[in-house]
Amino acid sequence: xxxxxxxxxxxxxxxxxxxxxxxxxxxxxxxxxxxxxxxxxxxxxxxxxxxxxxxxxxxxxxxxxxxxxxxxxxxxxxxxxxxxxxxxxxxxxxxxxxxxxxxxxxxxxxxxxxxxxxxxxxxxxxxxxxxxxxxxxxxxxxxxxxxxxxxxxxxxxxxxxxxxxxxxxxxxxxxxxxxxxxxxxxxxxxxxxxxxxxxxxxxxxxxxxxxxxxxxxxxxxxxxxxxxxxxxxxxxxxxxxxxxxxxxxxxxxxxxxxxxxxxxxxxxxxxxxxxxxxxxxxxxxxxxxxxxxxxxxxxxxxxxxxxxxxxxxxxxxxxxxxxxxxxxxxxxxxxxxxxxxxxxxxxxxxxxxxxxxxxxxxxxxxxxxxxxxxxxxxxxxxxxxxxxxxxxxxxxxxxxxxxxxxxx
Length: 408
Hints:
Strand 3 and strand 4 (111-120) form a beta hairpin. This protein folds into two domains: 2-52 and 258-407, no CATH class; 59-225, no CATH class. By secondary structure, it is α+β, with helices and mostly antiparallel strands. The chain has helices at residues 2-12, 16-56, 80-87, 122-129, 152-158, 193-196, 204-210, 230-240, 251-254, 256-294, 296-304, 309-344, 351-359, 372-398, 402-407; strands at 59-63, 76-77, 93-108, 111-120, 135-138, 148-151, 165-171, 177-188, 199-203, 216-217, 219-224, 246-250, 347-348, 365-366. It is elongated and about 100 Å long. It is built from 15 helices and 14 strands.
């Protein structure tokens, strides 16, 4: 076997230019695939993290039917049963973020606008997304305050300023009429227009009073160290709670449309990657085929001198395998620093594209993801493609006409 490998190695470097061109084809295919998938993974990671931080958390405790019928009538009691269930997993849970939210009509004098009223604990919201860092006027309320913080867009629409009175009218728990007058103590600005034009924040206890909800919540967000074990954690918490009243849901269950969109993006990028593979695969195949036909007379003479067909076929296979390995190894060597650079120093956006990214609450930059799985998977795929091309070379040796080859 060592002799066959030596023969294959020497054969490759008899024509250095052709070998380097073929290895370069494998290298650039690998680099394009890795760069594309790292970009896609980074973008989806940004989108997921933004959504988790802005709205869903990794997990949520909800009323059993709140996801299907999100109304103020389907909110759950945040009592001892829930607290004790979560206490069993305090090592896996970083922190929780309680919320109660519902639509209301916001008014000042004769002006009215629809608003999303949110009851929050600001310290816990700041852990999640630094909500207080978006304040542009006034300040975020504290534990003992009772004033409202409104979105900058809503404040403009209603001509609200610090110290003005905001009137809220809506529906509370079990169809109770929800009405209240609140002083405006702060104005907060978001990058997402829908939030800017609709959000009203109240202290959690004040909002629970406004909705006549007692100690109930619409959702309790649960943040963990990451999203790898959230399905297992959700199942374990659910076991501690009565399924008739409570549901523990992952972020994928809460926003299934977003999950489907990301799966569709993965499919599109995978198809683009396979187009690269097919194009370059045919290029490599053409190069290998040219090598075979150029050496047909040589092969015929070797077989005439008594060399076994299977040994000659093995030599051609080893040549192709070496080309594939060289392409993948050089691709990994070049790909790791390339992806790392774009991971540490993302591509910054400006203008309309930056505004578009901001509208999703995302950093206006494309950050590549460093994933060992991407490097390994693409290396295996590229190597398998070259291996199949090598198998074709072997087949050509086995069906070759020796007499015709020696006369060519």
